Amino acid sequence: MNKQLIECVPNISEGRDTAKINAIAAVVETVDGVRLLEIDPGKATNRTVITFVGEPNQVIEAAFLLIKKASELIDMRKHKGEHPRFGATDVCPLIPISGITLDETAVYAHKLGERVGKELEISGYFYENAATEPKRKNLASCRAGEYEGLKEKVAKPDWKPDFGPTEYNEQMAKSGCTAISARDFLIAYNINLNTTSTRRANAIAFDIREAGRVQYENGVSGKIALDKNGEPIRIPGKLKAVKGIGWYIEEYGIAQISYNLTNINITPLHIAFDETVKAATERGLRVTGSELIGLIPLKAMLAASDYFLTKQNRSLGISEEEKIKIAVKSLGLDDLKPFNPQEKIIEYLLKDNSKKLVDLTISNFAEETAGESMAPGGGSIAAYVGALGVSLGTMVANLSAHKAGWDEKWEYYSNWAVKGQAYKNKLLYLVDEDTNAFNKIIEGFRMPKTTSEEIENRKLAIENATKYATEIPFEVMETAFNSIEVMQAMLKEGLQSSLSDAAVGVLCAKTAVVGAYFNVRINAKDIKDRVFANDILKRAQIIYEKTMKAEQEVIALVDSKM
Question: pTM value?
């Protein structure tokens, strides 16, 4: 079962006093198992977005401490800022990352709220998936009237807080209210305009956001048109799952459209950007770039890259690093300040930073292999050679996609390049995993063997590790053999001046298969479970024989074309 991970993204009503911001964020790191990912202050909004992640109970503890510290250091009676707000910790959403559902996350949101209300005597509301009633689901409804309207709001029977004191008091005057939720990943995204006009920015926001704009009786302004129930009639905007307003940011000297993209599966980042560009152009304005507040999932950046590459009729089978560069430049994410993917993409912040073979330079990898240690060995080298082979096939596909006069076939070659990248990434993963599998065997042999129980546990650990160390090179065989299809397609229909490159790719794939086959055989002989061993050996031999046949066919094809 995957470890349960949730992300917490509290927004505090302080964006200018660095000492206060750091003091509030610092309490997060006092909780073991919680990782502080980002502190993103905004001077004009006087608001800071803090992001951290961990297992649910630890995250709840860190969130509680943060809300407590913010209530001590922030006095809402003195707060001014461009962003809507009603509390020192204005919002505190919990987002499921892995191993946990949205409904399960909502349970933790309620636990946090109840504790904040009882122990800190801070009032607040549950919204989104933690909402106690439909009308409280929308954050804008909970926050309506903002801090200045709290006294009047909490006095209304239908807007009594969900937790904490239900009457306006000295604590509420100082700390305001806090909105706590469980929600899907939300992207806070600002788009920059070449204007200082908030009214113009709002006009575009109304064009785009799902709620659109209210309709007036005369069609322009004046009296708002009402439906039969007395509710304002609205003209919907272009995009679903998008909230937005326009504002002027003194810090940058420009107007922005500030969006909340509440479901990037419905409206991705790149669609919000492109539709805003169209709406701005129609109104005589220009989008100069955009700004991410907080973090973004890797898939959103890759989807943006693929979108813009497709519009350019360019191959999608390029490296992840290049795709991120395309996304940053296409969205103008570096318009106002440098954009560092390692600090803004959540998967990059959460990635394992332990030393990996594939992160070494070519020369250091060779030196590591040539050293006294038994790992990396033949299995890792086989996987690496396979990765190099399919990289050559992918290169030919990308060159073919970009060849002048072949524009109508770019998508065909792009699809092959995408396949090649997938094979390459799998083989690079297997470079390190083969060494990890070998190390598991060594760990098994180092286990204690004093008692009969220890002896049995040791035997079981060695058997399981040996099976795994046989399965990994089999995966190398399987992946390297399957990757030959990329080179075969390019030999037949790719750039013929790169014929030898694709051919070398096949030879590398064949070497990877044969090398991994040797590792399967040598490890399988030590497996006590002979049913398992014989089955994997039989399947490995079939792949070996198919590879040898494919190599001969490729050599014959190359000879016929040279």
Answer: 0.82
What is the pLDDT at residue 219? 66
In the annotation, is 83 catalytic?
A: yes
Q: How confident is the model at residue 215 (pLDDT cuts 50, 70, 90)?
A: confident
CA dihedral 213→217→219→221, nearest 10 degrees, is -70
**Where are the CATH 3.30.990.10 domain residues in the chain?**
5-182
- Give yes or no for residue 1 having a pLDDT over 60: no
What is the reported pLDDT for 481?
A: 98
CATH topology of domain 5-182: Formiminotransferase-cyclodeaminase; Chain B, domain 1 (3.30.990)
Rounded Cα gap, residues 141 and 137, in angstroms: 8
CA distance 245 to 266: 19
For the structural domain made of 359-561, what CATH number should be given? 1.20.120.680
Kindly state the DSSP code that residue 177 receives in the 8-state scheme.
-
Active site residue 434: yes
Query: Choosing from 40, 306, 434, 501, which is the catalytic residue?
Result: 434
Indicate the SS3 state at residue 59: helix
Q: What is the 3-state secondary structure (H, E, C) of 324-383?
A: HHHHHHHHCCCCCCCCCHHHHEHHHHHCCCCCCHHHCCHHHHHHHHHCCCCCCCHHHHHH
Report the sign of the C-alpha dihedral through residues 403, 409, 411, 414, in that order: negative
CATH class of the structural domain 187-322+329-339: alpha beta
* Catalytic one of 83, 90, 162, 306: 83
Task: Give the residue range(s) of CATH 3.30.70.670 domains in the chain.
Answer: 187-322+329-339
